Here is the input.
Amino acid sequence: MSTTRQPESDRVWSVEMNGINPIDPQERHGRPLELFWVWFAGNIGILGVVYGAQYLAGNGLNLWQSLLIGLVATAVSFIFVGILSIPGVWGGAPMLTLSRAVFGTRGNIGPTLVSWISLVGWETILVITSAYALLALLRVVGVQTNPFWTFVCILVLAAAVVACGYWGHATLVWLQRVATWVFGLLTVVIIVFLVPQTDWHKVVSQPMGPWDTGLVTAFIIVMAATGIGWINTGADYARYLPRRSSGRAITLWTMLGGTLPLYVLMIVGVLLASHKTAVLTTADPLSTIQQALPSWLSIPYLLVAIGGLLAGAALDIYSSGLNLLAMGIRMRRQYAVLIDGVLMVLGAIYVLLIRNDFQGALTSFLLLLADALTVWAAIFLIDMIWRRSYDRKSLQDMGPASAYYYTAGFNIPACIAWVVGIVVGLLFTSSAFFNGPLAKGIFVSTSLGYLLGAAVSIVLYLALRPLFRYKQAAFLEDVPSI
Here is the structure.
């Protein structure tokens, strides 16, 4: 298939016709470069400034440590996203549909359900946060905000997000490219006004932070807050690429697209924290950053904040719709997006108009789900090392005839490793929603428990896999190496 010509099933401003079915070879199009735009726009949100202030400077790191940890942690996390995008090219299917080959047609329902809840939750959080920004924008132009305007803001923002997901892949990629340029340039303008406020004496004289509660803590938290949050979506945006697309190029452009905006914004956050110390602990970082800017820049700043948040939410709702289908629910992809959109609106209304104190609990719960997703990603990553292709028919067949039916629909080694890894991770995890009994020392302030759970799951999966012999799937064709 041409790398440039779009097929009828995936055209800009036309509803995408494919769902979770593997993309036919004649419908493959695009280049790995398009992943740069997808991930750049999805991470251009001004919250990157908050990550730098609270996760780097807030953990006691000096400028040089922040420069190093911010770059390495973000890049490594998006390298994982890039690597996990490669199976999308191999199988031409979304992330959690490919996961059927790893966990079994029924065993995969658990990881898919967790992924779907996480995506719907985060898209709701992003719409809530963007609603706060839009309400602030209305106040700047003289509108007296009230519950009615809050409701209107929710509907307007949700409609924009749902429209992106409803149109689908080609339109979403096109919009992400436009958003990269528009909001990227506006962000540069904002940075120009933030950086000169830096207290350079304070920045230069800042002592080095401790390695355990400083460097290690910051590294793990930044990884969790950046690329790791997207590990269950990578293949969704790579599955249309021609089958001979380079795995290295896919990983490179994904890493650059996600790392570049976040790294720059995080370092700006570190510098801003030297002058605007409130940004280190504030529960309303958007307003705190706005106060550091001249009043005439408030409108561009809030537009950037809204645009960046919506770009991320659009990716979430597109992938959440695919996840809903991957659980075995039969409907058109765009209708799955509408269902998720309704849930997103209801969640935003509940938080903004009924229970303002619920957002913190929701965020803590979603962060806890990252334990299950981290373990899932570890098992998937190990599995793809020896898997080079996928049986197209078996990916779509949930019954006993599928090569991925395994034992009553469960790949026993993967499912056991997933459950055990989750339990281990939770035992060493401390959060506002749950405290594991073994969460002591460095585990209290980091997501290190998730990584420990992932490591245990890998060892267990490798140990159990040779004990089970399943029939081999029919492979499509050879693919280039990673």
